[in-house]
Design goal:
heterodimer, A: 261 residues, mainly alpha, 2 domains, two-stranded antiparallel ribbon, 10 helices, 69% helix, B: 279 residues, alpha/beta, Rossmann fold, six-stranded mixed sheet, four-stranded antiparallel sheet, 11 helices, 10 strands
Chain lengths: 261, 279
């Protein structure tokens, strides 16, 4: 089976995997704002050590982490040179109007480092939380908005069904591509040509997706689905001592970093 | 006590966008008792699925009445009660599962009914035990075989504790192993749990396992008899494009050659037994 592209969940049973998704989402938000609020090298060192510990705890294979970081290389490269040459300061090296400054080197390095921390923090959430748990967490966190008539449950249902059908449609695309290839279709060549050759795949996929949607709707009707507040959920999230501990630890970290500046 | 399902003079007309109308069902009269195992068979377009969808108020009659356990399906107040009493399983196993894990999917029905969380858990456990998929509760549906997916769909229907299951060609997209798994489960549900079964099928061999076989053609029921009696009308079946199950066909031919076989031969075991005793 192919890996699901959404979320890049790495199945496991670590402490991070077992935390309540709501706690993980909240903590991730907090950890992602920290790099913008701290300045001293000691703070960066503390935060880095903390995140490194989380990576170790999550048991994420280093190769997976590396592959995730590699996806932002393009942006990182651009950012590096932007900061390198646009930060005013004492020139170290000057070629015509372009000057390389010591401050620029520091700023560029700092920005790249910050970016890496952000990416690692965000992917820790998706590595250790299945898309389904994320949906549950999101539904629970947004549920107060039901009072202002935001259809949170329905949105969660839509998200769940989308997740459920990603592998099914993927399989179907594979099958169609093979069938077209067997009849001489060519999926290589320039982007324009490739796009044109994909048409005979996407047309039947759309048609079949609508048919599936129709059948699924009938099946959901037959199983008594209706959007009422009477729906219950089998899985209820509840905070355990682990979750409280996690929140306390992060609170401790935030206070320490405020102290360090 | 009244029969579980009573259908009186049911008529259903599909309106077309062009203004034409297609009569899908006409003059259907039928009653099904609690605990019966009924097979429904007929050529494509004969109205089998349309009839099935009347049994849990997915479709409302355009003429006549459908009663489910004394409730009229055309009364809007009865819709949810009727759907609770009659569970449905459809043909395509991929297009009826809604969740990303087996247990969450089975929980979908009771969640819709507002059953408390602890009881849902209990019902899911029970339903998975009945179909024998306890070990797969955390699996995503796409990692199961077609037959297993269909068993999940059956468990999902069972979790709402229905008295009756309507299965609309549940085996037609499955391989032989999956077919056997699903058919065995259906038979067990009927025999052990006392669930009323309406099995729509294309396969005469599957129909042979029912207590009663209904044959539909052109929107109405043309035959309603126990399997052995239905199979005695070989020529009439062939006129409808239906063929006898291979075993029954062999028995017919042996009889034509002068071998005295009883008319109750429906399965391979029956045939073996009859041959060994007559020899």
């Amino acid at each position: 089976m192919k890996a699901i592209p959404i979320g890049m969940y790495v199945p496991g049973d670590s402490i991070l995997h077992r935390l309540d998704p709501r706690v993980k989402m909240g903590v991730t938000l907090v950890l992602m704002t920290i790099p913008f609020a701290i300045h001293s090298p000691w703070s960066y060192l503390t935060l880095s050590a903390f995140i490194a510990t989380l990576v170790l705890l999550a048991g994420v294979p280093p190769r997976t982490l590396w592959r995730t970081l590699r996806t932002v290389f393009g942006i990182a490269f651009l950012m590096f040179f932007l900061y390198l040459f646009t930060t005013p300061g004492e020139p170290l090296l000057a070629v015509g109007p372009i000057a390389l400054t010591w401050q620029g080197v520091l700023a560029a390095g700092g920005q790249i480092y910050r970016l890496c921390l952000l990416v690692i923090t965000a992917s820790l959430l998706t590595f250790t939380t299945s898309p389904m748990q994320l949906t549950h967490g999101l539904e629970a966190m947004l549920s107060p908005l039901e009072r202002v008539r935001l259809p949170v449950r329905e949105l969660a249902m839509v998200l769940t069904i989308a997740l459920r059908f990603v592998p099914t449609l993927q399989e179907e695309i594979d099958k169609l591509a093979k069938a077209q290839r067997a009849r001489g279709a060519d999926f290589t060549g320039g982007p324009l040509r490739r796009a044109r050759n994909l048409v005979p795949i996407f047309v039947p996929i759309f048609v079949s997706a609508f048919r599936r949607a129709d059948e699924l709707a009938t099946a959901m009707d037959a199983r008594g689905f209706r959007s009422t507040p009477h729906r219950t959920r089998m899985r209820r999230l509840h905070l355990g001592y682990r979750d409280l501990l996690a929140m306390l630890i992060v609170l401790g970290l935030v206070l320490t970093l405020i102290g360090l500046g | 006590m009244h029969p579980f399902i009573v259908i009186e003079n049911l008529q259903y007309v599909y309106p077309l966008e062009s203004g034409e109308q297609i009569v899908a069902l006409r003059d259907v009269n039928l009653s099904i008792e609690r605990g019966e195992f009924v097979a429904l068979i007929g050529p494509n377009g004969s109205g089998k699925s349309t009839l099935a969808r009347h049994l849990n108020a997915l479709l409302i009659p355009t003429g006549g009445t459908v009663w489910v356990d004394g409730l009229r399906t055309s009364d809007p107040h009865n819709v949810w009660a009727v759907r609770r009493k009659v569970g449905m399983v459809f043909q395509n196993p991929d297009n009826q599962l809604v969740a990303t894990t087996v247990e969450e999917d089975v929980a979908f029905g009771p969640e819709n009914m507002g059953v408390p969380a602890e009881e849902i858990r209990q019902r899911v456990d029970e339903a998975l035990a009945i179909v024998g998929l306890e070990a797969y509760r955390q699996y995503p549906p796409q990692m199961l075989s077609g037959g297993q997916k269909q068993l999940v769909a059956i468990a999902g229907a069972l979790a709402t504790r229905p008295s009756c299951l309507v299965l609309d060609e549940p085996t037609s997209m499955l391989d032989p192993v999956g077919r056997r798994q699903v058919l065995n489960t259906i038979q067990r549900l009927n025999a052990e749990e006392g669930i009323t079964i309406l099995l729509i099928t294309h396969s005469m061999s599957e129909a042979a396992s029912a207590q009663r076989v209904l044959i539909m053609n052109a929107g109405t029921i043309v035959m309603d008899k126990p399997p052995a009696e239905v199979f005695a009308h070989g020529a009439k079946l062939q006129a409808l494009g239906l063929s006898l199950p291979p075993i029954v066909d062999i028995a017919h031919r042996l009889r034509a050659e002068g071998l005295p076989l009883p008319p109750t031969v429906l399965t391979l075991q029956d045939l073996v037994k009859a041959l060994c005793t007559s020899a």
